[in-house]
Backbone:
């Protein structure tokens, strides 16, 4: 008995290749969102067990000689709904976006709700006492200063005869 073979058009292959220029995890996240939307449209409402796992917001981490700078996208979230913790070299940001009350029937929703959690291990020791966080226009900015021992130190090079030596 022969099995049917699913054939795809060539343009699907080029779309797939272009899509993989992004993070493969982003592709998986998109697929999960599409599956959730399909389940919601057929079953209606929230499917039990889906959405209980914390999601991870988008973030940028940059480094200067003095500190690490983390920017996390949290649109529509107030600073009172976010918890920032630093323990050793790990920075953790967590919170919850609660579902807003609505009137009428919700036909489609792509906004994230529920628990979120972002964790990053920074490459070197940090000064936990000097961490500062600000929220502006839906972006949480966190400045994590490096510990004094990990900051680069400029060493001046002198000629052998300049410093009172031979």
Residues:
């Amino acid at each position: 008995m022969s099995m049917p073979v699913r054939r795809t058009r060539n343009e699907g292959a080029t779309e797939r290749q272009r899509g993989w220029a992004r993070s493969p995890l982003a592709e998986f996240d998109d697929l999960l969102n599409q599956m959730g939307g399909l389940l919601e449209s057929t079953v209606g409402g929230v499917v039990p067990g889906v959405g209980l796992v914390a999601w991870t917001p988008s973030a940028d981490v940059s480094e200067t000689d003095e500190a690490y700078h983390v920017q996390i996208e949290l649109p529509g979230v107030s600073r009172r709904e976010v918890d920032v913790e630093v323990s050793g070299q790990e920075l953790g940001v967590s919170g919850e976006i609660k579902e807003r009350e609505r009137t009428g029937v919700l036909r489609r929703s792509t906004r994230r709700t529920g628990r979120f959690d972002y964790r990053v291990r920074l490459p070197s020791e940090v000064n936990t006492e000097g961490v500062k966080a600000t929220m502006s226009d839906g972006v949480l900015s966190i400045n994590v200063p490096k510990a004094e021992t990990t900051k680069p130190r400029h060493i001046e090079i002198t000629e052998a005869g300049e410093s009172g030596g031979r």
